[in-house]
Specification:
It is a single chain. The chain is α/β, with parallel strands linked by helices and 534 residues long. 24% of the residues lie in helices and 16% in strands. The chain contains 15 helices and 20 strands. An eight-stranded parallel β-barrel has the order 2-3-4-8-9-10-11-12. A seven-stranded antiparallel sheet has the order 1-13-14-15-20-17-18. It has a three-stranded antiparallel sheet with strand order 5-7-6, with no helix packed on it. Strand 6 (161-164) and strand 7 (169-172) form a beta hairpin. Helix 5 runs parallel beside helix 7.
């Protein structure tokens, strides 16, 4: 018995997305070319040949714009320039040119939910409450009894409101006070970002990953959010934030109209628009890639999950049956603990990634994931993430932001000096150079997986048929002449392949090239991609 999901063969008109694999570069921690301990654009350019060798098609760069750095670049003070720490506009041009020479596309991060408090718009809004810029942001009067206008919380703790003592009003910030939220109901804000997008499209960027795409609009009445769980006294800011239903500050219906406007700007450049959306509900997330809206949306929930095979299968298959072609699949990024640590092993991480590669859409890797890298080791005194430095909590993102491990030199070849974030040295076997010399390493397994997806387009392109199994920790998806079986459980899984002869294109724990027919066993915590043997 199968469940068939009709799907188009391509993702809209931007055909370069079809069959592509993306790779996130956390610019601060990828490669330092200047010897100041901070990653930069020239460093990225110098490593593009590595990404091409790996098989990457799309390179996503985290923010490199001018910023005071309260949230490591996600507090932008100028959207149309480069922070000197990361290089210059000339470095952007060189990077784009080299990536395009190598046949890769480049996607930048854009941060439209909020600016830096150092941005000239916000500075004018504070200095002149009667200025047009004041309405670029969300200033509100205190509650009737005094204090913040409502009970909204910041992701980073505590309240989402800070007092402008000069005027007596509060400004809204779903993140740090130094990251004031923009008023996306203001037509002038929309026009400003039209111009920002065009500036970079004209320079040659191939698209944008849209930070906090689900947070742009807030309910115009600013009501209290319903509390859904009791908040423990010891709860950190993230736990507190998710103790409320974010009914009025996130995922408002009008966001889709904004995306459609952006698409009108991007379409003439054949540029992609990709949402970072924290929406977990599959149907609501699919709205972000409805006709005329965005091209792709990340599905972030698996990146927060611990090892739970049944839940992982349910989330991946559930969304893939709802929206089979426009999801950017991930299990980690710069905000989430590394999957080799969350899941308990690197082979589990690869098993889940292999399933992702068979779900259509565009899978993304996060730098170091191809090495099976676990979380970085950081002394509590050396933390940088404001989630932990501004709160008495171990919650924080530093463990996934430590420098890329290129070789066994001091500082793992990332820099000639101590990096901006101190962490334990990675051993040789966890570096690019060390794994490159070992054909059985994680690096070579990932490279082979990317190659298999590229050379066997049925894996992502053919209509998917999810084969019913009798286990909730197993998924089987047939596409054309391929069959991918993900057994995330702790016991072997038997499947009858029938009379046809199949070949193992890829097995996450090894066994590529083996022939199979009839009843075969898929080992525990393993995903296998079979193809009908010609």
């Amino acid at each position: 018995m199968t469940t068939s999901i009709p799907t188009p063969a391509t993702i809209g008109t931007k055909r370069w997305l079809n069959g592509a694999v993306g790779y996130e570069v956390y610019v601060r921690s990828f490669a330092d070319s200047t010897g100041d301990g901070i990653g930069d654009l020239a460093g990225v350019t110098g490593r593009l040949d590595y990404l091409r060798w790996l098989g990457v098609d799309i390179v996503w760069l985290t923010p490199f714009y001018p910023s005071p750095g309260f949230d490591h670049g996600y507090d932008v003070s100028n959207y149309c320039d480069v922070d000197p720490k990361h290089g210059s506009l000339d470095d952007v041009d060189v990077l784009l040119e080299r990536a395009h020479q190598l046949g890769m596309r480049v996607v930048f991060d854009i941060v439209p939910n909020h600016t830096s408090s150092h941005h000239r718009w916000f500075q004018k809004a504070l200095a002149e409450p009667s200025s047009a810029e004041r309405d670029y942001y969300l200033f509100r009067d205190p509650a009737p009894g005094g204090g913040p206008p409502n009970n909204w919380l910041s992701h980073f703790g505590p309240s989402a409101w800070s007092l402008d003592e000069a005027s007596g009003q509060y400004w809204c910030h779903l993140f740090l006070p130094e990251q004031p939220d923009l008023n996306w109901r203001n037509p002038s804000v929309r026009a400003e970002f039209d111009a920002i997008y065009k500036f970079w499209f004209e320079r040659g960027v191939d698209g944008f990953r849209i930070d906090v795409a689900h947070g742009l609009l807030k309910h115009p009445d600013f009501p209290d959010n319903p509390q859904i769980e009791r908040v423990a006294d010891t709860a950190g800011p993230i736990e507190r934030f998710f103790s409320f239903e974010h009914k009025y500050d996130l995922d408002q219906e009008g966001n889709i109209e904004i995306f459609q406007r952006w698409q009108d700007v991007a379409r003439p450049y054949d540029a992609v628009l990709l949402a970072e959306s924290g929406v977990d509900d599959h149907a609501r997330l699919a709205r972000y890639v409805s006709p005329g809206a965005l091209d792709l949306t990340f599905f972030l929930k698996p990146g927060w999950m611990a090892w739970d095979p049944e839940k992982l299968i349910r989330e991946f298959v559930g969304l893939a049956t709802t929206e089979p072609m426009r999801i950017a699949w991930v299990i980690s990024n710069h905000d989430q603990a590394r999957p080799a640590s969350r899941f308990g092993s690197a082979h589990r991480s690869l098993a889940v990634t292999t399933l992702m590669f068979a779900l259509g859409g565009v899978p993304f890797l996060y730098q170091g994931e191809e090495l099976g890298s676990p979380n970085g080791e950081i002394d509590p005194a050396d933390r940088h993430d404001p989630i932990s430095t501004r709160n008495a909590t171990d919650e924080g993102r530093d463990v996934c932001r430590t420098p890329m491990a290129w070789n066994s030199d001091r500082f793992n070849g990332f820099s000639a000096v101590e990096p901006w974030i101190k962490s334990a040295q990675r051993p040789a076997e966890m570096t690019v150079a060390g794994q490159h010399e070992n054909p059985r390493s994680a690096l070579h397994r990932y490279r082979r997986l990317l190659s298999i997806r590229k050379h066997h387009p049925d894996i992502w392109q053919a209509d998917p048929k999810f084969v019913a199994t009798d286990r909730a920790d197993v998924a089987a998806v047939q596409r054309g002449r391929t069959l991918t079986v993900a057994n995330l459980g702790s016991e072997a899984f038997s499947i009858n392949l029938g009379d046809l002869r199949w070949r193992v294109l890829f097995a996450s724990q090894g066994g590529d090239g083996e022939s199979a027919r009839g009843v075969v066993n898929v080992a525990p915590e393993t995903t296998v991609i079979f193809a009908v043997d010609q």
